[in-house]
Amino acid sequence: MEPRHVYTVSEINREARSLLENEFGVFWIQGEVSELTRAASGHIYFTLKDENAEISGVRFKSRTSFLSAPELEIGSVVLAQGKLSIYEPRGRYQFIASILQPVGAGALQRAFEQLKHRLQEEGLFDPSRKRPLPPMPQCIGIITSPRGAAIRDIVSVLERRWPRIRIFLFPASVQGDAALRELPEALDRAERFSKHVQALDLVILTRGGGSAEDLAAFNSETLARRIQVCDLPIISAVGHEIDFSIADFVADHRAPTPSAAAEVAVPDAADVARAVRSLGQRFTDCVGFAWKQMADQFVYRVDACQSRSPYRRFETYIQRFDLATNTIHKSIALRWKAQDERAKHVAEVLRLSDPWRPLERGYSLTYRPGDPQPLRDTAQVKAGDEIDTRLALGKIRSRIEEVTTHDD
Predict the structure, then answer these.
(1) DSSP H stretches of helix in 65-176
(2) pTM score, whole prediction
(3) What is the mean pLDDT of the chain?
(4) Residue 137 CB: number of other CB atoms within 10 A?
(5) Spatial distance between the Cα atoms of 174 and 218, rounded to a whole number of angstroms
(6) CA atoms of 240 and 224, how far apart (whole Å)
(7) Helix (H) or strand (E) holding 372
């Protein structure tokens, strides 16, 4: 009977390592980084996991990697190439990675940084090429989804701050593959509309918040270059305040949210009215000061003439004073007329913006009891419902007997 071979611990670990490395060879594996340690030597020790299991891994400093060490972090999903092995001194089963590549958001971030750097080198982000926004726009184009919250927020802010503004929506998908094509096309439509139908003062390119994948369409190089050559000033408002997109860097102005874009786009009518009143007061003060100076100068001249008693010179000063007085009166009249016309124009704008003025002409607003929004569609009510009708003076409550749609 042959004697039985007894392995040492070192021998069995060495044999197991050889079997693992030869059997599996080099392969790819994907997982989420759940533990991460960066050694002083430059080696990186990590754990990859999926829903049911995990495996220890290491990336040695000498190995080639397409993912630099600072980009690897807990929670990131990576695609790794390497081989299985055993760390013999401890008998530890591990994966030795030679290549690491980001997956999902990591890949998007890497592509974002590369495109950002390239476009910045080309000068697309240069502040000198950005155009100022018009101070008092009359017509604004909005490029976004007609079903998103962004369009509702923008319209609400615009109508509150600058009631006479005209808004034109150019609908487009704001995420997914369709958005890559539809966003530049919507910008084309807005530019053609401005040239041939109604001149636009500026365009707001926007959407609400979302994941990196949701916002990816606004990091498109095609969209960035289309923004660069657009003839209209563009405000980019993509996502939340912490989100930045390539469109933000190329646009003439970046707003942190859709609502903030609306506030930047138009002034506040109340502020404009206050500024007009302040300007009128300053004008009155300036005229009063000038008049007092002229009167003081006249008294000084008269006193000087009387002290020397040259009657002819006194008459000359009187004539000069009359001429100066007439000049002042004309100047005051012209300036006051201009300010009065501007004040009347602003007052008329504010008067026409009064939402209750149409009620004085016989119109009315109809609400469902308890609902602050007026009815706009017969589909919102049915026969038998109670409704409130707001008139210029008072309110009427009634019950619906019959509902007739537009098609009836």
Answers:
(1) 105-122, 149-161
(2) 0.50
(3) 85
(4) 18
(5) 8
(6) 19
(7) none
